[in-house]
Amino acid sequence: MNGLYTHGSSPRDQMQEWEKRALDKFLAKMSDKEKPFPCIPATIGFSKNQLRYGFVGDPRENSTLTELSSLLTSYTELSSKIGNYTSLIVFYETPESMNDNTVEEFEQLFWNHLNGLSSLDKFDWPEDIPTDPHDPIWEFCFHGEKYFMYCATPAHKNRKSRHFDVMMLAITPRWVLQEFNKSQSYARRIKAHVRERLSKYDSISIHPDLNTYGSEDNFEWRQYFLRDDDTSLSKCPYHRVLKFLGIDK
């Protein structure tokens, strides 16, 4: 099913079975009162119906990247009209054969898709954002917008906050996070609650890479894909200049 949807407007009669299952699983996860999802801003966005949903194909197929690019372009063009807690939730058609994939294999797919998105991006990189991901103020940009990326996979077991039955992205505009952080005292309280929820939600300690954007010891790319243990990549796999799908950016 192509396009962007809210959880109240998704035409279920037009949805494939895997799409229905993925959306229902997500709605259950976000509305669970006994075991609340740790990211409080995300649950607020859900309750306010400001999340938008999209479905794309097999994460291993090149054609899926074109679908993802189209979704994110559409979302970027309307996100500012949705609300201060909006994010784009993308579900991948993840075949059961991928259930044996490791976290690291999903990690490679994730970075392939970020690289591929950049190769399809028709907009220039924002001038105020460095192109080197090892700069503390670097973040992923697409269609002129700055985004925080989150990836969940079926392979995550210990870190339930990063587990989902299919490969999934949550893509949040930077301006949403800036709005949230306007009141520093409020933001501090919420972040403390988030970490408290995380410690209960996951069966493993909070990943050491979770940090604050702009801090000298922070690299945003490390938080996009958290492994199921405390390890992380030593070098960011993102390369803005890349030949992908026959397109030379």
Polypeptide structure, described:
- With 249 residues, the protein is α+β, with helices and mostly antiparallel strands.
- The protein has one domain (12-235).
- 35% of the residues lie in helices and 13% in strands.
- The chain has seven helices and seven strands.
- The chain has helices at 17-31, 40-47, 62-78, 103-120, 174-180, 184-201, 220-224; strands spanning 51-56, 87-92, 140-142, 145-152, 168-173, 243-244, 247-248.
- Strand 3 and strand 4 (145-152) form a beta hairpin.
- It starts with 16 loop residues before the first helix and ends with a strand.
Short summary:
It holds the Pfam family YqcI_YcgG. This is YqcI/YcgG family protein. By secondary structure, this protein is α+β, with helices and mostly antiparallel strands.
- Average pLDDT across residues? 90
Number of domains: 1
| Amino- and carboxy-terminal Cα gap | 29 Å
**In sequence order, what are the helices and strands, one letter per element?**
HHEHEHEEEHHHEE
Q: Which blocks of ≥5 consecutive residues have pLDDT under 50?
A: 242-249
Number of strands: 7
Beta-strand content estimate: 5-15%
- The rounded Rg comes to 17 Å
Strand order of the largest sheet: 1-2-5-4-3
Structural class: alpha+beta
Overall 3D shape? globular
Treating each run of at least 4 consecutive H or I residues as one helix, how many helices? 7
Assembly type: single chain
Biggest beta-sheet profile: 5 strands, mixed
Specify the helix fraction band: 25-40%
Pfam families: YqcI_YcgG
Organism: Mesobacillus boroniphilus
Protein name: YqcI/YcgG family protein
